[in-house]
Every structure is written in structure tokens, then in C-alpha cells.
Fold each of these.
Amino acid sequence: MFNANGTESAFAEQSVYASRVASKVNDYYGYKPKACVVTFGCQQNVSDSEKLKGMLVSMGYSLTEIWEQADFIIFNTCAVRGHAEDRVYGNIGKVKALKKNKPNLISAVCGCMAQQETVAEKIKKSYPYIDIVFGTQVFHRLPEFIYKRMNGSKRIFERTLDNKDIVEDIPVSRDGEFKGWLPIMYGCNNFCTYCIVPYVRGRERSREPQKIIDEAKQMIADGYKDITLLGQNVNSYGKDAEHGINFAKLLRMLNDLDGDFVIRFMTSHPKDCTIELLDTIKECKKISRHLHLPFQSGSSRILKLMNRYYDREKYLELIKNVKERIPDVSLTSDIIVGFPGETYEDFKETLSLVKEVEFSSLFTFIYSPRNNTPAALMADPVSREEKGKWFDELLKLQEEIAEKNKEKYIGKTFRVLCDGKSDNDGFLTGHTNGTVSVEFKADESILGKFVDVKINSYENAYIGTLIKN
């Protein structure tokens, strides 16, 4: 599904390049070509890839997920964890063999990894068959890069990170039919000592409220029922702008739009989660009762080393306010295990916080050093093996909490969006307002619709019964 707002826009110059490629592309390849977009990393990367796909379609490519069929292949990369980078290098190494069979194959690497000078230099020296490498703030120039490469340009490397403007009106090819991503801001100002994001995504830049509203309206008109707002820290939306609309006010504006849909958002930083925001979630019917509040560590000492701008006490006070105002909230969080300088005593404070809060689920990671971040220079005497033991202890605790929490869902009826097919034959899947997933037997005609489901049991997943009105 594609959309574009208006003809005169910041993307107008690239639209000219897209038209030039479209008029040339069939002759260049000798047939109608296919493009493959390979995405690594977070939801923001997935959303960026939807724009890459939209641009590629506007240039005359059809889309494929099969590498061997592709005439253009692009890797949209993640730099947040070392494992993601290793996977990228392993995958781009396969392009060499593909080019032997398809000399006109154009290959590209973009995104957070490509924004780093060391990575760009490594690709330049070690992967000569990669044609185009570009960073996060110039991905809208893909039509220009392809046009130049088709016309004999040397390998292209572009890593600008000083663009303060947001390029609007880029065509989008969305992956889902019922659930979609809606970016509201880009970049980050927090500079957590372990995080590479501000260095590869730049400083915070908020989209204009009307642009967000217009895109949401189009998504609703196109049949999207589950819209997730994206930003590195959505809670700080509007702080860099003069329009006076903060995140809570933006949520109310979206909630007031006509249509039957649910609004989700991620990610939230605890330091910017206000009482106004909590009351907005409480009072607005279309906003999900799910709050993702990464606390990263239960130790105030470690939080200070992480530069998180809050301590254990402030985080627990925030959770108290959340539960008082939104009793049915589903709370999730991120935790880093084994941050440089963390002791087992610090880690036990993380365990005790998890016990106290009882999160619905957790995203847990063993610390992975990122080059050019302050934490990478800190002393880190605890072995990977020891951190692994701590990690297992955390997982075990969360499994116990999850087992206990199952009881509060069984026997209750929830309104869910039927959004997919289960691996169980004849069953569909749906998600509650609080993001709880449930499987139930139903006809596929209800896909994309809101239905009432009673949860009866838990058997590797919640199993329910469709309540017919």
C-alpha cells in the first residue's frame, strides 16, 4: 500500500531522480527488475525499510524476499548490538557470489552501521562488490544514488549527519495489512553511556503534528487498525519544536480521529514519562494499555554510570503512579546485565526491582560494548561466563513471574484485533489492548477485525474462545 502527500515537497528533487531511474531501469537490466530489502534491528529500521521499498517501487522495481531473484539488494543495518553487526557482515559476504551470476546487480548497505566511519571504511576495503553505502539521514536519496550508479558513477559513500530537517512525503510500501508503523520523531538527545544511537541517528527531530495526523488519517482510511508511533524516545516529542504540542497532546489529537483503531507507541524513557502522559493513557479509549519503560538496571549506582537521568527510587515512584492511574496496564521493560563495573550486589538490586514490579515481559541483554561510546572505555572485570549466570538467574525469575501472572487473564474476556494465523491448524491470533497475544478458533473472514475473545487456558500460548455477538 502506498501513499505520498502532495507534489511539491522536500522529496521533490529525489522524485525527479526516481522518474529518471524508472525510465531507464528496464533497459539497464533487460527486463523488469526485482529488489530485495533486508532489514536488521529495531522497529524504526523496519519503518525506514518500508520507505526504501516505496522508493524502489516508484523507480520501477518489483519487490522480492528471495535474494537470488534480486537485481538490487540493500541491507538496512543495526548498530545497537554486536550480534546484529556480525550478522550483517555474514550476509553481505554472500553478495559476491550473486554478482558472478548477475553482473548488473546493484548492492547497497545503509542504516546505523553504515553511518559509522569504521564500518564504511571496512566495507570500502573488504567488500568491493558493495556499490552504495549511506547513513541514516540520507536514505531518502536512494533514487539519486541508484541513478548515478546506473550511469557509471564510482562506488558511492555518503554519511552526512548534520541534517536537521525531516524529509517528508517519501512513498511508503507497508509490510502489514492491519498493523502499521508511524514515526513521529527521529534521533536521540539522551547519550546513555552504552548507546550508539545518538551518534548514528543524530539529535532529536520531531515531525510536524499535522504531518503525523495526515499520515494517521491515511493509514486509517487504508484499513490499518493497529498503529504504533515510533521514536527513540517518544516521550520527548515536541521538545525541539515551537508548535507547543507535546507527546500527551499529540496522543489526544490522534485519539480524537474517526475510526476504530488502537494506538501504541515505543519507546518511552522513564525520565520523560509525565503524569500528564499517564492521565492521557487512562482517559483515551484508543490508546493501548501497554507501557514499555526500560529501566536497564535496578542499581542507582549503575544507572548513574549509564547516564539514565533517574535512580531506582524515582523509577519505582513512576511505576507506583502508573499502576494507580492505569490498573490494567501491561508493563514491559529492557534490562542490561553485566554493565561495566556492575557487581553481583548491583545485579541483585535488579532482581529485587523485577520482583517488586512484576513486569508482563522483559527484553533482556548481556552488555555488548559499542565502539565510540563512553561505556566501551570503562573497566569491565566481570567475565562473560559470570554475566551469563546472572542472565540465567534473571530469566528464571521472570519465568516465575510470568507463570504467576497467567492467572489474571484466564477466564476473562478481551477485545482483540484478529491479526494473523496461528501455527495451530484452524486457529487465528489476536492481541489485546495491552498487547497480550491469544489464539482462538475462527474463520479467516474476521482477519483485521476487532472481536471479543474469552481466554480459557495457557498451553505455550493463551488459548481462547471467540465470543460471537
Amino acid sequence: MTERLYFDEPYRTEFEASVVDRVEIEGKPALILNRTCFYPTAGGQQCDRGIINDVSVIDVVDQDGEIIHVLEREITGDGVRGCIDWRRRFDFMQQHSGQHVLSQSFFRILDANTKSAHLGEGSSTIEIARGTLSREEAHAVENVANKIVFENRAIKTYLRSEDELSSMPLRRTPKKKGRIRIVEIDGFDFTPCGGTHCRRTGEIGLIKTGRWEKIRGHVRIQFLCGNRALTEYRWKSETVEELADRFSARGADVLSLVMKQTDEIKELKANVKEVTLKALDMEVHELLSKAPVLGELKIVKAVYQNRPSEDMKTLATMITESEKSIALLGNCDEKGQLVFSCSKGLPYTMNDLVAEACAKIGGRGGGSPDLAFGGGTQPENVEDAIEHVFQQILKG
């Protein structure tokens, strides 16, 4: 069994050890040592990273009581020296300790037990046994959690037998048998846990909840602690300050101003769309009035410069919905584009025709029998491609 130095010395960053065995994990060399500071992925907490003899440790796995250190490359020799990435370790110590405080706060304020927790690389989540959560409730829980942080309470770890646990106010029951490691936040939270934690709650720093969502009849909440919370506050604060400068307003007024501007933009877009449709309707009538006639069928063909593809699709559809017709539209910019459409019920397959035309402009296309589009790298051939299809339709 690997001696786990991080249990009693979570602030220790370097150690010396002997190689017990060499194995392979997913094609990568790995070491089992007699002792280690490296915490393995477990209990929702990510593993430590660092180096062993100047070789990067890319994963740490707990397997049958042994800690397996997955390496970037092979290491020779029986004695090694390891060093963990302290910034990463302390980050997860802040998140894990903060999660304990937050979980107990949810229990005390909302009588909501924590069903699961995940400490991610960027953000962390806890899932609580509650169907809803309001902003006011989240703030009340945050207030209690940060009060415990500001009180700078001691965080202690110790082992207890199963008999001794019955008299302790545990937040959750242990998942293992035998002597159990307890993490106690002085007089506030008692939890069976094998993770790494801060010495005192003051080291956790700010605890801040984020977005939440319903999942499996519960609520899953994002949260950040310590340096992560500071980093998020910093960019959010800078964003608000920049917006306030742009609006020449106070930061507190930015949200209402942005919402007002968003509503105005939506209204402007609706007006532009209405005007555009009216202009397209006039263009449709003009194109149909000049279109060649084949029996009762009108064939509209037109080539544009730098016209948006969505605009052409709308135009083609409007043409073929207005009268019994076929629309053969092309666009030339850096590439060639084609949009073919026909009225429903006509014996033509636009997807076949557009595929044939696209071959002439160095590309390909597809779609349905009624509406198809495509493109190619030879815009100079768009007009000839449309004319080729037009002649085929005339010949029947």
C-alpha cells in the first residue's frame, strides 16, 4: 500500500521515494512508489500534477490501494524525487474546503443535502436535494458560507472508528468501513473525506455561487472559491466598467441600458426585415414580368454580385411561391453560388440540376427537388452554368 503523505501533510510539495513497481496505463509508463505526495483523482477532486525526476506526471490513479503515477516518459532507477504543482494543489484545496463549507451552508439554511460534488479544472458544482432555488436563497447560503470563511475557523483531519462516528454530527454517512478519516471545520461541518484541504477557512477565500440548473429532480449549482472567484470577479468587473464607459453611465445602470438597447435592436431588425421583404416582393414581380415563358411556366434567371446567400434563398422561394415558375439564381464573389427553386408539383428536380451546374463552377451542391443550392471555386462560370440548365429546361 502506498503511504499517502498528503493525508497529514497537504502543504508538503516535495518528497523522496522508492519505486515499488513499473506498470503501463493506456500506453503510458507509470510508477508505483512506496510513498507519495501526489493526490489521485478521487471523491470528485482532480489529481495533482507535477514532476518525478524532471518527468511530467500527467495522471494519478488510485488502484486497489496503490497510487499509480502516469508519466510522460519512462524513468529509470529505483530511487526518485517528486514535486507537485503547488498552484494546482492549493487551488483544489480551496475548492474542496469551500465545497464542504458551502454544502453545510445549504443544509443549515435550506435543509438541502449535497447529493454529489465535482471539482473541475475551471469551475466546480454541487448537486443538492432540492427541486428549486431562488436568487435570494442562494445569497442567503453564500452569506453563511462566507461568514465561516471570515471567522477563519480551523480545519482539522483525524481518524475515527465506526463506533465513534455514531456520536458525531456527520453531514453524510461514510462510503467505507473501518477507521474513517474525518474533515472537521471547527464546530460547523463534520464530513468523511480523503481529500486535501486548507488549514483554516480564511485560506479558502471568497465563496461564490454561479449558475444553476435542474437535474434529476435536484438543483446543480456552479461555484468558485478563492483565486478562481477573484479571477472571475476581475474580468466581470472590467467588463462592467468598460460598458459603463461606453454608455457614459454608472456600473449599476449598465444592465438596464444594455437591455434597453437590445430591445431597440430587436425592433430595428424587425423593421429592416419588413422593409427587406417589401423590397424583395417588388423585385419578385419585376423578375417575373421579364421572365421567359415556357407554356404556363416562367423561368427566372439572374446573376448577382456579392449578394448574401440567405437573401438569394428567400428571393428564389418567393418567386416560385408567387407564380408557377423556376428560379435559377447565381452569385459571384470570391466563390460562385447557385440557388435553384421551382414551384411545387412541377416535374423538375432542383437538387439534380444544381449538382450538374455546380460541376461547371468547380464545386458541388444538394438540397430537395423544390429547393437546392451549392457553390464552387470558379465564379466566372456561374452565368454559363445557369444558361446550361436553362437550355436543358427549354429542351424538356
